[in-house]
Fold these 2 entries.
Entry 1:
Amino acid sequence: MENSAIFLLQSLAAIHLTMTLFMYLVAVVIILIYPLYLYLTKPLNRIKRHGDLGYFFGTPELAGKHRDQQIERLKRIRMKGDLPPVYPNGWYCIAESPQLAPKQILPVVVFGEQLSLIRSEDGSAHLIDSYCPHLGANFNVGGRVVDNNCVQCPFHGWVFSAESGSCTRIPYNDGTIPEQARVTVWPVVERNKHIYVWFDADGSAPEWEIPVIEDILNGQWTYKGRTEHEVACHVQEIPENGADIAHLGYLHLAGAPVGNDVIRIDLSDRFPSITHQWDGNWNPSTKDKHMSKMHLEQVMKFHGFEIPLSSSKLDAIQIGPGIVHMHLDFGNLGKGIVLHHVTPEEPLFQRARFVMYSNLPRWFAKFFMLSEANQFERDVYVWSNKRYVKNPLLVKNDGPIGKHRRWYSQFYSDSSPRLLPDGSLSNRAKSALEW
Ligand code: FES
Ligand SMILES: [Fe+2]
């Protein structure tokens, strides 16, 4: 009797101990796995500023102010080449819609101009020159959105309509409002949860529209992350990459594990353990002359064996000089789009924004965006240091680079601003509504 009581107590103690250990184990697993789960499912927001990528000053690397000074020096001694005009005609992305809240003024730099992007109280977006015609204050610094869609200057309180550009109120003036009291308005459109400005060097109205992506607007495809890169090159260099087929099997051959830094990637290793195998072609659209298509098939291999879920077929539709809609199809896993935008902020300074909307699993979308950024950043190393070559030495299998240039030249006109040897522009970029 006594023995069985002891046995029972021992059994209960053992069960209690096992349960406690099990609970601890579950807690440890949750603590370890939960952050990983959060990381994998949180949309990517990868931002690389000018100087983060693409500059190398030998070993040991420069740091702090020395690095900044050397980047300035590189800019001075950079050989630019015989550049095409610097601001092609077309629509350019200036913001993602969620970045602009009602009553907000968002500073925008595009075509070398300082502009102010405004969201009215009722939600419409407007873009105006930032400098007040009265005494020159900058609306981006202290300006306010008032009277629904107007901007009030912080200096003397004048109020301008961001829709028409005209001055609607001078609070301390009881005479008439001078005729010249107006700000320049730029044509904008909000589409696919992005805001675009139209630029045309001859002041022509928009000649084509940005296609609507219904699956973004009806919520079938949801936001899956973004990347943003500042790149120091001519705007044309970035889309031209799509027609440069030969570089895919070289700069982009090695898989993501070797990283984005071309200085550290061993380009002589033709058989890295993880490789990207590419097959692509580029052609202008026969229907819409401002459009072209790059079809790309890609698969990742590990020591020659295909990695599951790594193959993709992409159609990258270029729409004008600065927009690409990259349609993704991963079969059963889902579909989606990456909206690629390249916007010239200065003659040799581009902002590249990639945003994904899809019904792909969040972890997979993140993996895709990170891999794409990794490959894109290798190009950034090249773009931010190269010169533009007007007559490249093309050989067989280089890809249709010449054809792409002829196609892209439709976005330039005789009045397109050119970069002069002294660093100034042949003519300023003007709003198409200023003519
Ligand atoms: S400078 Fe803008 S109101 Fe005077
Ligand atoms: Fe590339």
Entry 2:
Amino acid sequence: MPAPPTLLEPDLLAADPAGLADVGRLVTELTREAAGALRRRTGPLPALTPQELARLLDAQLPEGPLPRTGGGREAVLALARSYAAHTVDLADPHAAAHLQPPALSVAAAADVLASVFNASVDTWDSGPYAVEIERRVVRALAALAGYGPEGDGVLTPGGTASNLQALLIARDAALGARRDVRSAGLTGLAAEPVVYCSELAHFSVARACAVLGLGEDAVRLIPADGAHRMRTDELARALAGRRENEVPIAVVATAGTTDYGSVDPLPEIAALAARHGVRLHVDAAYGGGALFSDRMRPLLDGIEAADTVTIDLHKTAWQPAAASVLLARDGRDFAATTGLRVAYLNPDDDGAAGYDGLLGHSLATTRRADALKVAATFLALGQEGIGAMLDACHDLALHAAGTVTSHPRLELTAAPTLTTVVFRYLPRARGADADAVNGALRRRLLARGTALIGRTDAAGGVRLKLTLLNPQATKNDIDELIAAVVAAGSAVEEAA
Ligand SMILES: Cc1ncc(COP(=O)(O)O)c(C=O)c1O
């Protein structure tokens, strides 16, 4: 085994010429090991229980203190082999559980470069080109969303973080720039902040309210209609009927609900929010990918009326996580909340001379050059390339819905809007507990590792979910996946 590196080795540091060459060699070796392990795989998950998997790792990374001395690159190659053998394989066409796509190779490769240079976008001098790339990427996305020249944005670590920052902006806009909830009387009984969203909004909305000191009670859940879209008559009633001491912070519409992919009626919601003078945030973490597709774009009509928009490029733009973006129709929203001048980072005179980074846009300080992989993707595939991927996944979802509908043992819960199909297995035995059978059949698939599907509670019980984000999967793959679900359901029933 080669000796572990010492501090004197010329290739120890990634971003010098010898180091970069070594990164190239190491990445080649790591990916070769990973490819070998991938070829031996039989499904998207390892056919192991969580306990068996933990025991396997014991041999490589035992619990306890850190290794005192390093094992050199052999140790890393072994880790790459076992990682590729045992982690999730999202490129497997039978992986369809979560809003977690297989990453694009061009984006993954560009991400290596981001790691090599380790630039940060908080200040100009910590990552000059990276800062400018992020500025251009977010502005291009702002324009794609229909915003004018004042539109701006920032990359964040996820939809949860983007929603939090959007509600921070909304809170400060509603309560005043001092961000002092006491000054608005909010610790007393007087004023009550409220945030309106549909009952199907992502939990991060309520979590953001908790973090922002508004309390989860601030959330007013508006019922959804039969198509899983926010009911605008109920929103109108809630807005018009609010008590005098209620301070509306924002309406949050969802463009692509987590469970169904349904899109709230954005134009009507925007009109209501405007009529009542309330800010509108659109959580398009999932549905934002429709911006790239001519076919799906009409789903997002009205999004340009939102004050802020969350788009997760690590969902429907096939980026390695994390690559969420928060867009604002008026870029001054960032300065009003996170705009901060810090003597050691971005003093005023540096900023005035153009030496400005993105610290003032973000809740983070050190921040990766995540825009590099996004820019690489846009340059390589263009808007049409990404849009075509979403269209392909949409086609798969329509096909899956048709297959489910025509199968006597399956029941479709919701027709797909984007790329999600919600359904359940119907047990043969009368009186069988359908929820228990559906839960057990999914675990059976997990244990065998050959198919990975999602689950949720919907329509009063356990439902199964295909979140189809592999544009290279075929209709035949989808039919096999559905057949595996039915076979697992039968097996669960037989075993009962
Ligand atoms: C609609 C919606 N918003 C926000 C999020 C949170 O995104 P993240 O997991 O990137 O924090 C999700 C995650 O699935 C989502 O579906």
